[in-house]
Write a structure and sequence with these properties.
Elements lengths: L4 E5 L11 H11 L4 E5 H9 L2 H14 L7 H12 L1 H15 L6 H6 L13 H8 L4 H23 L11 H4 L6 H8 L4 H17 L3 E5 L6 H14 L4 E5 L1 H6 L14 E3 L4 H11 L11 E5 L2 E5 L34 H7 L4 E3 L2 E2 L14 H4 L2 E2 L2 H15 L3 E4 L6 H14 L4 E6 L7 H9 L2 E9 L3 H7 L5 H14 L2 E8 L6 H16 L5 E6 L7 H4 L7 E2 L14 E2 L10 H11 L26 H7 L11 E4 L5 E9 L2 E11 L4 E7 H13 L8 E2 H10 L5 H5 L12 E3 L1
Parallel strand pairs: 1-2, 1-3, 3-4, 4-5, 8-11, 11-12, 12-13, 13-14, 14-15
Antiparallel strand pairs: 5-6, 6-7, 9-10, 16-17, 18-22, 18-23, 19-20, 20-21
Helix pairs in contact: 2-11, 3-5, 11-12, 17-18, 18-19, 19-21, 22-24
């Protein structure tokens, strides 16, 4: 187990699947022959706390400290109830965790009986959710009940032994918008918390086994920051010979202008952006094979001063060179499948073990004005070949045994998605996958059918403000009408659609907020949106809005002396709209819309303050969907058949003394048998064409080549034949124009 580098994801990121950063980095280090070991300390800490021995220790600790625990009045009864039922929790915890790990599925019946698990305050909401879970299977209901049970214990921990505790965010408030390091630093000088003790004991044991020369902590979110600093602090105190580096999403966005030297009491190096080249150079530097000047995008102390070194002669690795993400070392059988809230897309985040992979580095659009498009992780767009992506998928399936994939792209490129889908089908891979997209017109009906056939189960994308004026100001490159049509294509193909929604964008008026709600209501009513989430606009220092606020009609609030985290920018919107006042109503309406409740109710019902009437026509979305889509097929459109080659029968027909021959093609799909009838000669040509354009063939044919083949057979009416039945219905059996 001895390794040069020890790669750590500190608590807490996700409980259902490993956060992929260290797997990406380990895969790269494999290509360089650098030994590495990785740990997800979040799941290791969680499974130690939420066990029979863990709860026995927890309850003993609480009883010992009970005289000194101060609770709010509303929490007293809840905590007393949990403590009274402590034996029930201790008796059931191992079974519940095993069930959520997929090891004891038959426990679902017992959990759903509502007599097995002790229930505290979190279960008070269950009556409101009975209607929402009514159509869910018993396993999903049981997962939700088990999740509430764990959250009751989580509340106990937070109120009695560690105020920072949270399943997916530990001490998050200490890292969020922390312009100064003071508050976090003071917390780190205090005695270890209950969770700290467990975390650091595991860290110590792992370091003793691995004997690394360097420990690399990936910090994706503010909720991982405190634990990362605790780890760095402990290593410096107990293993001073080991160097400690920090990177990840938090550093990339928040620490680009770091000024506080105290940070380096905990870390030796802080890296920015893609970690492969920086970590490789840090390892070489610590081993003495390179000089300090050869470091890449790295902060460190030089002569007691914070110094940023970026050797520009050292280029970053191409995505084809970084290797396949390596999921070895993770305890893959210990991850927990939870259902916290009733949201279809959020359940994908928390309920399922997904292999994380990337189709393309950066964003192919890269223009949205609220986004950090000035930073490399967005700005530097580099797609990966579809064949290489599928090679990596096969490697990861063999390693993990899991066939589910979450492509973690900023926005997956439609052309590459098509290529990957075709490659998946050619290889006959049986996979399920989902990703983030832009709702652009490239997602035609046929493209969505192709994606579905390859295993795509869901997409998420930014509808944002659902206002054409603001979408233009955001430079989103889409319109509400376009989003509606694309969502219809996804939905009809059987792909779940989740929309990210934003309110409070600069100059957004109350009228535009209400109109956005109306657009969302109509989309849910039309059945073209299955899941969504509202979030309040945050201005960031690396976005076009943050870099040029005056261009967007807002002002930066009074500058503070920023020495630590520098990303979120407090701003003033002179339009005067109180965006916070809409927050509860937006979320309440959306929760109901997702379950087909209140779709015909007036919008003011959801808000506790006066709101304007929507100015959007009540049938706006329906009208958009009814507009005839122009045939957008171009001569270079690819024609691909992904279905089963049909059988063909030539039959004689007669009517009123006239006799002719007809071709009957019989298609077998998984759901049904489809028959089409055409003239004999055209039917025989079509039968030959389907074999020619089959996905099994190496050559791909264009619509222009198909037309040439048709005309070479002696037919002259290609457009009339191709754009009418029965050809237009053949996409149902796998004939696609891409």
């Amino acid at each position: 187990m001895i390794a040069t580098a020890y790669l750590i994801t500190p608590p807490f990121a996700q409980l259902n699947t490993p956060y992929p950063a260290t797997a990406y980095l380990k895969g790269f280090l494999n290509t360089k022959g650098i030994s590495a070991f990785q740990s997800d300390l979040g799941i290791e800490v969680t499974t130690q706390i939420f066990s029979k021995l863990g709860l026995e220790k927890l309850f003993a600790t609480i009883h010992a400290q009970l005289p000194n625990i101060v609770l709010q009045d509303e929490d007293v009864n809840n905590i007393q109830r949990i403590l009274t039922l402590q034996e029930n929790y201790i008796h059931t915890i191992d079974k519940v965790i095993a069930f959520l790990q997929g090891k004891q599925p038959t426990l679902a019946q017992l959990i759903c009986s509502r007599n097995f698990l002790p229930e505290a305050a979190r279960f008070a909401q269950i009556d409101d959710l009975v209607w929402a879970f009514g159509n869910m299977g018993i396993t999903e209901k049981a997962k939700h009940l088990a999740t509430l049970y764990l959250e009751d214990i989580s509340d106990l921990i937070k109120l009695c032994v560690d105020e920072h505790f949270g399943f997916s965010r530990y001490a998050e408030k200490l890292g969020r918008s922390a312009n100064s390091f003071d508050e976090l630093y003071e917390a780190l000088l205090r005695p270890y918390t209950y969770i700290d003790e467990i975390l650091l004991q595991l860290l110590h044991q792992n370091i003793e086994k691995i004997q690394p020369k360097i420990v690399c902590l990936s910090v994706p979110f503010p909720g991982n920051l405190y634990a990362a600093f605790r780890c760095g602090q402990y290593i410096h105190q107990h293993f001073p010979q080991i160097k400690v580096a920090m990177g990840g999403g938090f550093a990339n966005t928040e620490l680009r202008s770091l000024k506080d030297k105290r940070v380096f009491e905990f870390f030796d190096f802080i890296t920015l952006d893609d970690g492969e080249a920086p970590i490789e150079n840090i390892i070489k530097f610590t081993e003495g094979s390179t000089t300090i000047q050869e470091l890449k995008r790295t902060f460190l102390l030089v002569n007691d001063e914070i110094t940023f070194i970026n050797n520009k002669s050292c280029t970053d690795y191409k995505q084809g060179e970084v290797g396949t993400p390596d999921y070895s070392d993770f305890f893959l059988d210990q991850y927990i499948q939870a259902i916290e809230i009733v949201n279809p897309m959020h359940s994908l985040w928390s309920n399922g073990r997904w292999n994380k992979l990337t189709m393309a580095h950066g964003c192919y659009w890269g223009k949205c004005t609220f986004c950090d498009i000035s930073l490399d992780y967005i700005k530097l767009y580099e797609p990966i070949a579809a064949s290489l992506i599928c090679d990596r998928m096969e490697e990861m399936i063999n390693q993990t045994g899991e066939t589910g994939f979450h492509f973690v792209d900023e926005a997956a490129p439609p052309a590459l998605m098509k290529a990957v889908a075709l490659e998946i089908i050619k290889r006959k891979l049986v996979v399920s996958w989902w990703t983030n997209v832009r709702f652009e017109k490239s997602f035609t009906k046929d493209v969505c059918l192709l994606l579905k056939a390859s295993g795509c189960i869901g997409v998420s994308g930014g509808l944002e403000v659902a206002s054409d004026r603001l979408l233009k100001l955001i430079n989103k490159g889409i319109t509400v009408a376009q989003v509606a049509k694309v969502n219809k294509h996804f939905t009809e193909a059987g792909i779940m659609v989740h929309a990210y929604l934003m309110f409070g964008f600069p100059t957004q008026t109350a009228q535009e907020t209400i109109d956005s709600v109306e657009m969302v209501r109509q989309m849910f009513k039309a059945g073209i949106l299955q899941s969504a989430f509202w979030h309040l606009f945050t201005m960031t220092s690396h976005s076009p809005v943050g870099l040029n606020p005056e261009k967007f009609g807002v002002q930066k609030a009074k500058e503070t002396n920023i020495t630590f985290a520098d990303n979120d920018v407090e701003h003033i919107d002179p339009t005067g709209t109180n965006h916070d006042a809409f927050s509860y109503g937006l979320k309440k309406s959306l929760f109901n819309y997702m379950h087909s409740i209140g779709l015909d109710e007036p919008l003011h019902k959801w808000f506790d303050h006066k709101t304007p009437k929507p100015s959007v026509p009540a049938d706006f979305i329906v009208q958009c969907l009814q507009e005839a889509s122009l045939n957008s097929s171009k001569p270079n459109t690819k024609v691909v058949f992904i279905g089963t080659i049909p059988s063909i029968e030539i039959v004689s027909k007669s009517k009123k003394g006239n006799t002719w021959e007809e071709a009957q093609l019989l298609f077998q799909t998984n759901k049904e048998t489809v028959q089409i009838k055409v003239d004999k000669d055209k039917g025989e040509w079509l039968y030959t064409l389907l074999q020619m354009v089959s996905i099994a063939n190496a050559k791909t044919y264009t619509l222009q080549e198909v037309q040439a083949s048709y005309e070479a057979a002696g037919f002259l009416d290609f457009e009339l034949f191709w754009d009418n039945k029965p050809i237009t219905n053949l996409n149902k059996v796998g004939l696609l124009m891409l």
